[in-house]
Structures are given as structure tokens and as C-alpha cells.
Amino acid sequence: MKRIVFAGCLSLLALGGCHADAPVASIDLAAPASTAPVTLDHVRRDGAPQAVAGFTLQRYTFEAAAAPTLTVTPARAWSAGDELRVQVQNAMPWAVTLTVDIDGASPDQYLRAQVGLPAGPAQMLVIPLHAASPRAMGMQAAPPMPFDDHGRAILFATTVEGTLDPPAVRTLRFGIPAPQAAQALLLGRVEAVSGQALQQAAYSGIVDRYGQASRARWPEKIDSDAALRAVHANERAALEKAKAAPQGMDAYGGRLDVQSLARTGWFHAQKQGGRWQLVTPDGHAFFSLGVNAVTADGGRSYVEGREFMFRDLPPDSGEWAAFYGRGDNRSGDQGASQGIGYNHGRWFDFYAANLYRVDGKHWLAAWRARTLQRLRAWGFNTIGNWSDDALGQAHRLPYTRSINIAGDYANVASGYDYWGRMPDPFDPRFARAAEQAVTKASAGVRDDPWLLGYFADNELAWAGTGPQGRWGLALGTLAGDTKSPAKQAFIALLRQQYAAPETLAAAWGIALTSWDALNVTGFAAPAPNEAHPAIARDYSAWLRRYADTYFRTVAEAIRRHDPHHLFLGGRFAVNTPEAVAACAEYCDVVSFNVYADLPQHGFDATAMHALDKPVLISEFHFGSDDRGPFGKGVVSVWNEQQRGEAYAKFIAAAASDPNIVGAHWFQYTDQPVTGRLLDGENSHIGLVGITDIPFGGFVEAVRDANLRVRSQ
């Protein structure tokens, strides 16, 4: 092992000893005098060095300031090796955020790491001297730190941004971003190490044979097949006792005490007494309480190339072969999957394998029966998007269908493009693709009264990002290539309005001598500004035309193939007023995926009241990191108890809103610890874990909240 540092010998306890044939030198931030100059900016050195857990550390207090910084400047640049190691202890009783900036030989050569230092004993902070992220390891959230490396507490910086190639360090800067009060840290030796990378150790063995996080404990965690089967047997008995249907409900879950609603034989939306209602086929009020992604294949995670992360993977032969498969997610243009490593090859389905451990070869049928029992017992009345079709066909709960429009039609970049570029509805191929998608989605269900309705696509990029994000689709349309059907339609609209290019140029404050100058690939359209109000006005008209064309095309296809059921909208994540208004015109219900503490904080409730259309919250969740998966979801809380409290608050607020007709939780099962196949998401957001064991306290809170809403 090669160590490249400044002076002195590191502690034997910290790094396993010094050898005569491997001289060690370091920057010592605890030494009274250092061979490398140290500059303190709103940082003070307090007291004498002290021995802490085998380290010699110096106390530094970072004062309340915008950027208190401790800077180390070596006399000359030095080759940094693979990792930077820092002896450190957080002297505060709470976690402190530490930034470490490493400057190279030129301005474009730098690295930045930001780590959360937990309160507790001294430890070794290890920073890889190259860009690193959990995404590169195949997941969106990293394992918790510190981890135990053969008896040593190692705090590994899992996210490092920048470039240092070759790794030559000129300056090290330690800082705490904008502390509101003084924060104290103890710092010791800093050294660079080559040839002993700890990144793989930080991720090694993080998943046990059941797909659970191996380094943590929680009440629902199991450690044997016998324990897994015992928990399920106990739940099976409890579900049998709770099989009775809720009182005061019709067969579909509608309330018998709400009168004077139309009985059409199909689910529909109706406004009564100033409140929008979903109405069951039998004519009763129905507040849709649903769960998304109720499926048995959600436990798939790539294992190829990162087998070191998994303990005791079953063989890919014999009875376990059915739970292995192969995939490839390298060719997508979605922002969601960019930078995700280990994104192809062999995967293993931990969730399905655990279902097999519980119920043997008939595991899928047993899971379906158990899941339907659970959802009814927990107060849910709807099977949400992306769920197993067989659950809806069982006619125990109403269900939804997804229209997934895909094809070789043109597309437009809005600047958001998280799930890909926007479909171009002006391309005739889009209408054909929509027709095919609706034909497929409605096959076998158009005459089923248990079908609530259809969603079209999901979280399309109706807006861009940043302050001018509202206009992203207009700007992207004009920047498109000359063959873009959307661009041609936009130019035609502008020619109709302005007649001459000089008139448009004056209105927009740009130089434009011919229409051909507008019709070039990469045209840089102007951003709206106060001096030229026509720009925003014209962009707004175009956004409405674009959304009208999309929603009208899909709505007409639905009505041709299924005149009975609801069009539930497009599951907005980002949106514009123009897109929402168009959706309200052509859809029966406007759906929003809302990731906020309350539903009204995720969409413009005032605008929806003015549009006078019902709203369905098609996704929401609250996550924490105390049940295995490393991520906390989009909206995080501290612990499992707060997940239940947040759910109850959200559902109550939704039910009290006269425009909201339902809310669907995302999702049924926790995501795999090492990331789902699509994009590496790995959060604790489920009703049940990877072992199909419900999270008891959370589920109880969910059930109580659901039953309160259904009885109001």
C-alpha cells in the first residue's frame, strides 16, 4: 500500500500500522506546527490537542458565518493517490454537515464532497479522489454511514463531484455551510492513500439473502425462512377474522348514505351541493383510496457485476432460476436513468423469491388473494396504476388502467425531460400510436363496471426547469429541427398572426428578416420579458394549442373504444396553466402526482376551483430510512411513526377539499435496497417490505385514516 502525505506517522489503530518499507507522511491538523500552512477564516483553534480513541485531535470551532473555512495549502502540489483520509469527530450532540473541497492544478480540476458527520465517537472520514455517487453504484441513495470495516468505523463519502485527473492536490478546504450557531469539530491527520480503495468495502454485503439491508435492524426484519413463514401465518389468521365487508357500503365501496346521485351503471364524476364526487355504478358517492404498483415483480434489482453487494444470492439454477432474468436500461434518453451504473445484465427478484419461500409453487395465486384481503382490511377501495391486472379482474376492488403511448413519432425537448422528451401530438404517427395504445388498454375491460377509468401516460414534461420553466415547451419547439411537426405548426400559427416576419421581430424584440430564419434547427427563441409582453402571450397560446392537441387526440381515441369509462387525465408532475386547462377540457378528472405535505401544496387548487373539474391525487407518499432501504422517498419524514401521521394528515386534507375525489398512495412494496431496474430508486415508501411483511404501525395508522375518510 502506497501512502503519499506530508510528515509524520499515522496512528497504528487508524490504518493498521506503519511499516519501515512503507513510509507514511501526513498533514497533521492536531500538531502545534504543521509543515503545511493552515488558514482559518471564521474558524478558531481551541485548546490543546487531545487523545481520542487512539487519535490525536485538535478542536476547531466553525463560527456562525456564511462560509467558515479551514484551508490547508501545501508548499507544492502533491500526487494524491486514490483516497483522502481524515481523522475526525463531531463534537456537537447533533449531526453536522462538512464540506471538503479539493483543488487541483488548474481551475477546472477540483473535487467537492459533502458528508453528514453523525454525533458520536471519532472515526475515519474517507473521500475517494475521483467523482463518485450512489447512482454510479446502481442506486439513488447510498448505504448509511459510518460502516464497520473490520472493527474500524469508516465514514465514506459516497458522493463526490468534480474531476481531479491526474489527482494532484494544491489546496484542501474544510467548511460547514452557513451554520446558524458555532459548530465544533475535532480534526487530526489527513493523508492520501493509493491501492487500498474502500469504495467497494462501503457497499459490500449490504443486502442479505431476503433482499433486506444487512447493516440495520427493525421490527419487521426476519432472519430465517421459519420466521418468515411464521409471520405470514399469524397475519393470515388475522385477515380471516377481518373478512367482513365494511358496513354502509355498496358492492363497489360507495357510501349508501349519500343520496340523489345518478345511477349510470358505470363510474362517473358528478357535482352535488358544491362538491365533486366520484359515483359508483350503483349511484353512490365514492372517495377513491388507492395504492399504485400493487404487483409481485417489484423486487427486481440488477446483480450482474456487483455481486459483492449481496450476501448468499441463491443459485441461478433449479427452483431459483425462475426469479432471475436479464435486462438492459442503457439506451434510454430519460433523465431519470442518466448516470445510473450497473444498469444491465442479470437481475434477481427478491420480493417474488420471498413469496415463493412463503407459499411454494402457488405463490402468485396466494399473493393475489392475500393482497386483496389486505387492501380491503386496510380501508383501501381502489387498485391504482401499474398494478397486476388479475387483481382488478377479481372484482373485489375497483381498478384503473394505464394507457402507455409509445411509438416512433417525433418528440420535443422542454428542458425537464426526466422521463424523456415530450411526444409531438402534431405528428400523425402520434395519433396512430395513441389509437393502438387505447385499443390495447381497453381490450377486455370496456364493458367492466369495476373499471374506474384510464390514465394516459405519466408525468410528461409539460414544463422546463428554472424561473422560465413555464415556457420550456415553447422554447424547445422553436429550437427543434426543421422537420419537427410541432415546430411547423408553431411557425404556421405565428405566420397567421403576424403575416410578416418583421412584425413578429418587432413584437418579440429580435432580428428576423425571413420566416426561413425562424425555421432553422437550434433557433434560440427569446425568453419572455417585460419589454416585450407579446412573447409570453404567444408562448401561452402555443402551449394551449399543444396541450389541446395532445389531450383531444387521446380523449377521442378513448371515446371511440370505450364510451363508458372515465378519462382520469395525465398524472401531472410538472405542469403549466395551459396544460391543466386543456386537460380539464378533455378529461373527466384532472390527476396530479403530488409530493408535498398536503395535497393543496402540490397543485393550484384555486385554478382547479375556477376550472370546476374534479381532481384525483394519483401519487403521493412519505418515506423514512428506518426500515431498510436507504432512500426516504420524495417527501421524507424522520421515522415510521411520522409516516403514519403524515398519511393521516394528507388524506384528511384531501377528503375535506370539495374538488378532490381521491388519493392514491405510491407504492405497495418497498423498493429494492440496491435500486429498481428502471432508475435505481431504492426508498422505504411501501406498505409492505421486500419480505411482503406489512409495516405494522404504519398500516394501522393508514387503516384508521382511511376508515375515518370513508365514514365522513
Q: How would you describe the overall organization of this protein?
A:
There is one protein chain. The protein has 712 residues and is α+β, with helices and mostly antiparallel strands. It folds into four domains: 202 residues, Jelly Rolls (Sandwich), CATH 2.60.120; 259 residues, Alpha-Beta Barrel (TIM Barrel), CATH 3.20.20; 34 residues, no CATH class; 151 residues, no CATH class. 26% of the residues lie in helices and 22% in strands. It contains 16 helices and 33 strands. Strands 1, 2, 4, 5, 8, 11, 12, 13 and 17 form a nine-stranded mixed β-sheet that branches. Strands 3-6-16-9-10-14 form a six-stranded antiparallel β-sheet, with no helix packed on it. Helix 14 links the parallel strand 31 and strand 32. Helix 3 crosses helix 4, helix 7 packs across helix 12 and helix 12 packs parallel to helix 13. The termini are far apart. The N terminus is likely disordered.
In this structure, how is the largest beta sheet organized?
Answer: 9 strands, mixed
* CATH architectural type of the largest domain: Alpha-Beta Barrel
Q: What is the number of helices?
A: 16
Radius of gyration: 29 Å
* Class derived from helix and strand content: alpha+beta
Helical content class: 25-40%
Q: Span between N and C termini?
A: 69 Å
Write down the CATH class of the largest domain: Alpha Beta
What's the total number of strands? 33
Report low-confidence residues grouped into runs of 5 or more: 1-25
The overall average pLDDT, rounded, is 93
The CATH superfamily of the largest domain is Glycosidases
Enter the CATH topology name of the largest domain: TIM Barrel
| Approximate shape | globular
Number of domains: 4
**Strand percent estimate:** 15-25%
Keywords: Signal
Protein name: Beta-agarase
Organism: Rhodanobacter soli
Signal peptide: 1-20
